[in-house]
Design brief:
The chain is α+β, with helices and mostly antiparallel strands. A 3-stranded mixed sheet has the order 2-1-3. Helices cover 44% and strands 20% of the residues. Helix 2 (50-65) packs antiparallel against helix 3 (76-94). The chain is built from 3 helices and 3 strands; from the N terminus they run H-E-E-H-H-E.
């Protein structure tokens, strides 16, 4: 089976199938900029223990605490830091390089 890798959709689907997906959901107060609850971590195609999932939550929380989320309008830098921190952890533990999607919701 030959697939044209120039098609970004096919490339992303292959990456998801081979490496998996991790979504970090963060709910932040729009008034104070603080986390309202521990981040939710959703993993698909990436097998991690409960302790490793908890460690990812801690990584996301620590990364977010380094920013003043109340003042930052564009969250791209924050999301990139979260993505980088999770990627480093997962590669070290599993040798996989999953797609990582941080989602920051202000309430």
């Amino acid at each position: 089976l030959q697939i044209d890798d120039s098609n970004i959709y096919v490339r992303d689907r292959l990456h998801l199938a081979e490496e998996g997906l991790i979504i970090a959901l963060c709910c932040v107060s729009s008034l104070s900029g603080e986390l309202l609850k521990a981040p939710d971590i959703i993993s698909k195609g990436v097998v991690l223990s409960d302790a490793q999932t908890e460690a990812k939550r801690d990584i996301v929380s620590k990364t977010l605490s380094g920013f003043d989320l109340k003042r930052i309008g564009d969250k791209r830098e924050v999301k990139n830091k979260i993505r980088s921190a999770i990627r480093t952890f997962v590669i070290k533990k599993t040798k996989n390089n999953p797609m990582i999607m941080p989602v920051i919701t202000q309430v």
